[in-house]
Amino acid sequence: MAERTVKIEIKRQSSPDSSPHWDKFELPHRPGMNVISAMMEIAANPYTADGKETTPIAYDSNCLEEICGSCAMLINGKARMACTALVDKLDQPIKLEPLSKFPLVRDLSVDRSVLFENLKAVKAWVPIDGTYDLGPGERIFPQVQEERYPLSRCISCCCCMEVCPQFNESTGFVGAATIAQAQLFNEHPAGKVLKEERLHALMGDGGIQECGYAQNCVQACPKQLPLTKAISDVGRDVMVQAVKDAFTR
Amino acid sequence: MATAQRPVAPTTHRGVQPLRAGQGNSFLLRKLHSLSGIVPIGAFLIEHLISNFEALKGPAAYAAQVKFLNGLPFVRVLEWVFIFIPLAYHALYGVYIWARGKSNVIYYPWSGNWMYMMQRWTGLIAFAYIVQHVWRQRFSGVNLPEHPGAAFHKVQMELSHPWMLAVYAIAMIATCWHFSYGVWLFAAKWGITPGDKARRRFGFVCAALGVLLTVIGLASLYAFVGPMYKNAPADLSPAQIEQGSMAPAPAGAQVPASN
Ligand code: SF4
Ligand code: SF4
Ligand code: FES
Known about the structure:
The complex is a heterodimer of chains A (249) and B (259). Chain A folds into two domains: 5-110, Ubiquitin-like (UB roll) (Roll); 113-248, Fumarate Reductase Iron-sulfur Protein, Chain B, domain 2 (Orthogonal Bundle). In chain A, 32% of the residues lie in helices and 13% in strands. Chain A is built from eight helices and seven strands; from the N terminus they run E-E-H-E-E-E-E-E-H-H-H-H-H-H-H. In chain A, helix 3 (142-152) runs antiparallel to helix 5, helix 5 (176-186) crosses helix 8 (227-248) and helix 6 (195-202) packs across helix 8. Chain A is elongated. Chain B has a single domain (33-229), classed as 3 helical TM bundles of succinate and fumarate reductases (Up-down Bundle). In chain B, helix 1 (26-38) crosses helix 4 (75-100), helix 5 packs across helix 7 and helix 7 (162-189) packs antiparallel against helix 8. The N and C termini of chain B lie far apart (84 Å). The complex binds iron/sulfur cluster (2 copies) and FE2/S2 (inorganic) cluster. The site of one iron/sulfur cluster has 13 residues of chain A, from helix 7 and helix 8. Chain B: This is Succinate dehydrogenase subunit C.
């Protein structure tokens, strides 16, 4: 019985400034294997399909259960999480590439700190520093909680930004994830104290107005965040704030 | 308090730059672009298509409509303030938006992404068409504001070239598409239809609007090229226009179609 194998092609680049090349691998098939476990196999036996020795693939991953958000990459051309990309469900050869809109670090590892910068720019937090006891928090109604919970599932993977036609170097668009997080904290009884500041931030260049409503973000999001709803809701809040500003500032 | 800026990145930034919180005025410009597409441009488009529909009642009725519009108070001011300037702004800023988007419909062939791309292409088609349309019909040839009676003939001559007719038909579809999806986008982006269901329902409304406008537009094109008003007179006297849609069919209509 011939051994079943898995063919994988990986776009590699050893440093941010070197030029990319493709390495082909052929691995023994194991039931239930995913893209990350396949790359672990390569690390354990770093030989390409034509028998040349190579280095293990550099990639980000941590939780292996789609909750840390670190393993996003282009799998057969589409942005998704590698740890939940089951090899049996993918067309072969499986083509792996790094996310294309983030500065490359090495191989499949990219620098996604722009999302962190954006979350800071919209103050995506509840401003409580824990230095003294504020007493019990305000009650959150279940209805509000049900609106907020789906937004809280974001794992900062940046898939929504990678697939967005408006997220690129000429627009400097903030991307759907940050808008959704602004909404999450605007709806929090203590977090809403910064709502106005968040809305002002999102009016800046690269803000919510750059969204072209292609709705790719909501299709690609591995955690099914209601991103288009968030963009719509925040879009209204920003507009109302802008009109208020025009008359009262 | 924490007034100190975070240290500026020493080297040039790689990749997409972060949000410029609260800076710049692209918000205002972009929202003006969005709004101008609905009012005044969208409103004018509807007015224009309804006016064109008068052509189905014949050259006299069409001339009467042209005369009525050109009789509005401050009509030249209205024309510039509510049509030409907003149109030019919407078109030029639209090209700027188009140029900065990176369509990726090949990798992500999802319906919203297709519509995103179509909104850009229909916009570009409409822009190219409108430039030649305004030039050829409004600013060159017979001056229609002064000779409303010549309107039907002027359009008929234009549409007598089959390729020009094709240009008009394609542009009609593209423009109605762009407008009706634009209404949908407006509602979605300004937070009027945030919910998925609301957006889907409004999608049907906008699709119906688009089809209706396209049908109205194409029907009026047919008035100029169909057999009903062949060889319309080059100009109508004020008296002929006065009689409006009740006027006898123009002399040219009796001539049997030669081709
Ligand atoms: S709706 Fe489209 S343009 Fe807007 S953030 Fe999502 S993918 Fe980007
Ligand atoms: S919104 Fe979804 S796609 Fe975007 S970063 Fe969060 S989890 Fe990822
Ligand atoms: S490894 Fe954590 S999301 Fe894939």
